[in-house]
């Protein structure tokens, strides 16, 4: 009789061993699914980053995403201009424009070039501003067009064979029409 319980115990031990070996493939299958899921999640994140940060490098020439990105990597260089006060072209009565602005330029070398030629820059801008009517510059669209005109004037070379200064934007810091 003593042998019968041992045989029963051997059978009991053999059954849990079979269950343990059956549980191991289930656990390893879960681990494989977790690893595969992590890899897919990483690939999806990398693909999203590639799409949003650099996928548009192959756009048509001249599109904003293919423009040189030298300015993007450097901090912006701003030049605060002295306030301009000019007589506007008369419509019904005499009106004045007092305007403060800051120019954004490509780099410090461009800022130095503009500072060196500030009398020419101020003359160009005074002539431009005094050629405007109040009705032309009071609307948002009028201000945007004025900013574009200012950029165009500031980009003109200072000598016949001189380089064009790279002015990228103009920001109005004050704008008063009286």
UniProtKB/TrEMBL annotation:
Transmembrane segments: 31-53
InterPro entries reported for this sequence: FliL (IPR005503)
Keywords annotated in UniProt: Cell inner membrane, Cell membrane, Cell projection, Chemotaxis, Cilium, Flagellar rotation, Flagellum, Membrane, Transmembrane, Transmembrane helix
Keyword Cell inner membrane in annotation: yes
GO biological process: bacterial-type flagellum-dependent swarming motility; chemotaxis
NCBIfam families (UniProt xref): PRK07021.1
Family: Belongs to the FliL family.
Identification of the protein by name: Flagellar protein FliL
Species name: Noviherbaspirillum cavernae
Gene expressing this chain: fliL
